[in-house]
Design goal:
This protein has 16 helices and 25 strands. It is of the alpha+beta class. The protein has an eight-stranded mixed beta sheet with strand order 8-16-15-14-11-12-13-17. Strands 3-2-1-4-5-6-7 form a seven-stranded mixed beta sheet. It has a four-stranded mixed beta sheet with strand order 22-19-18-25, with no helix packed on it. The longest helix is centred in the last third of the chain and has 15 residues. It is globular and about 75 Å long.
Length: 548
């Protein structure tokens, strides 16, 4: 099921509606977000094409797709974690209403060191036949909504709403209920009928007998653990790019108690294993991601684009346990094997996470089956036995802590952008809900994302001479230390208009400012089911169109 040369999932294809159905709702969660990647989602959903592609040449087609998608798309992401784009695209302005920033909340004073980390899609499809059942698709990922090419894992399950209520769906509904309650102006029940979702019968993947949903939603003021394994198991295999909390591996120490000696296998990044050290990982058989092999294979095929991230490292998260001679279980999703993520016997998790628990035939999905798939004797497999190298101690932990606290102050601030009309242009005034105390040694600069006009952060920051299409709720924040930029955040503020404007119309008009572009757009609108040839024709007609 996890052979990297065979079992590949096309991300874009999974967003396309089943034949005879159309999308009614798409809800996504992600830790970090690339706006260029998000722009390709409407192409996948509305035109039935994959996510991979150069969005800089798709502006007219994207305009139609965004209009078609309308209010169907909602993306929850960690506030501040939008990737700073190399070039601003005025179409980003049409995405803002779909974005819901989430400030991490650990339920205690550790919130600054917690993360909003779940990575999943919930898709609802309605048939053109009124008698057909509503269909759902759940995509659980280990990757963020970016063009990252790292090795990831995903699980896709399809279901239909029919028959009796299924109690096993309650944790899935509870996750979204709590997410909407904490971050959105809407209730989840206003978007998705909870009773309808409760009745969904999910189709089990091959060799899987049972499906469960686990998340770290609050229960009694503490976050729940996102894993559920028996206390005594025959073997355990953990795949995790990150395993340390500071200099400790508390979560792995805790997991060791759940299985027999010498039957614990850890698959991780080479540098992370070396940072943890051989002594800390006693009791684990350690394997490093074979980056040389994967780089060699992927670089031959990789599309050369400014949007792709070329770090082809490990990003997958998976916990496998052989519970007995016949049954193994998987936990697949967003959770790294760290104390902040899964907790341990003494402390609860701090992060918001989501995991899919699958249990089934040990001979097909068990520990031995995966080791045989990924490791071979000549070290040409996906993972190789790790040989530890001693690394110098990290002396920057104290500096990193101060930076993390400052980041949290910035993302936990309510940013208000007031828009005023000044003759034929617009002025934006930025204020905050509270005074931000910047620690000694740090400075903050801020700019509207659509323009490169950085200003020192103050009680009020003003920009003027904006076009209407340049108005944006997205803010670029540069954190400087000793004059050097050490962190860049993109946060989402609130726009308040003191004048009558239609920003979406202004963006549309800007894209259709000549006859050929306008005719391309009309042609797209007249196509009931645009083909890939229609789409590419539209793209070729836009070759001279620049970014706003």
């Amino acid at each position: 099921m996890l052979a990297p040369d065979k079992n590949r999932v096309d991300y874009g294809e999974q967003l396309i509606a089943p034949k005879g159905y159309e999308l009614t709702n798409a809800i996504a969660t992600t830790y970090s977000l690339d706006l260029n990647t998000l722009l390709t989602v409407p192409i996948a959903i509305c035109f039935g094409h994959t996510l991979e592609g150069a969005v800089e040449h798709m502006r007219i087609a994207l305009l139609d797709a965004l209009a078609t998608l309308g209010d169907k798309l909602t993306v929850f992401y960690q506030q501040g974690n939008i990737k700073l784009p190399d070039k601003y695209n005025s179409l980003f302005g049409l995405l803002e209403n779909s974005l819901v920033p989430v400030v991490p909340n650990a339920g205690n004073d550790n919130s600054a060191f917690s993360s909003f980390h779940p990575k999943l899609w919930l898709l609802r499809f309605k048939s053109t036949d009124s008698d057909a059942n509503i269909k759902y698709r759940l995509i659980v990922l280990s990757r963020n909504l970016t063009f990252d090419r790292s090795w990831d894992l995903s699980a896709v399950i399809n279901g239909e709403s029919r028959g009796k209520r299924k109690p096993t769906n309650k944790p899935l509904i509870a996750f979204f209920d709590q997410l909407y309650e904490s971050a959105s102006d809407e209730n989840f029940s206003d978007v998705i009928d909870s009773d309808e979702l409760l009745r969904v019968l999910w189709q089990k993947p091959n060799n899987i007998q049972n499906i469960e949903f686990l998340s770290t939603i609050f229960d009694g003021g503490k976050r729940q653990c996102p894993i559920n394994i028996p206390h005594s198991n025959l073997a355990m295999l953990a795949v995790s790019p990150f395993i340390r909390g500071g200099s400790k591996v508390d979560a792995l120490d805790w997991l060791k108690d759940f299985t027999e000696n010498e039957k614990r296998y850890l698959f991780c990044r080479k540098e992370e294993l070396d940072m943890a050290g051989e002594e800390a990982l006693l009791g684990w058989n350690c394997y490093a991601f074979n980056e040389h092999l994967v780089n060699a294979e992927e670089n031959e095929e990789m599309e050369q684009s400014q949007f792709f991230e070329h770090d082809l490292s490990l990003h997958a998260k998976l916990l496998v346990v052989d519970e007995n001679d016949y049954i193994s279980s998987w936990h697949i999703g967003s959770a790294n094997m760290t104390q902040a993520v899964i907790g341990d016997e003494h402390r609860s998790t701090r992060n918001s996470e989501f995991m899919l628990r699958l249990s089934g035939d040990r001979s097909a999905i068990g520990v031995d089956a995966l080791i045989q798939l990924w490791v071979n004797e000549d070290n040409t497999g996906l993972f190789i036995p790790h040989e530890f190298s001693k690394l110098e101690d990290d002396q920057d932990e104290k500096k990193g802590r101060a930076l993390r606290l400052l980041e949290y102050k910035l993302i936990n601030t309510h940013w208000l952008l007031e828009v005023d009309s000044c003759n034929d242009a617009y002025q934006l005034s930025l204020t905050t809900s509270n005074s931000i105390e910047v620690p000694d040694g740090f400075d903050i600069q801020v700019s509207i994302l659509s323009v490169n006009q950085l200003r020192p952060l103050a009680e009020q920051v003003i920009w003027d001479k904006f076009k209407l299409s340049q108005i944006s709720a997205l803010l670029r924040l540069d954190i400087l230390q000793a004059g050097e930029v050490v962190k860049q955040l993109v946060t989402q503020g609130e726009l308040s208009y003191n004048c009558d404007v239609d920003r979406s119309k202004a963006i549309t008009n800007e894209l259709l400012d000549n006859a050929s572009q306008f005719m391309s757009y009309i042609s797209m609108l007249l196509q009931i089911n645009p083909s890939k040839e229609d789409l590419m024709c539209s793209i070729s007609n836009q070759s001279s169109v620049g970014s706003g």
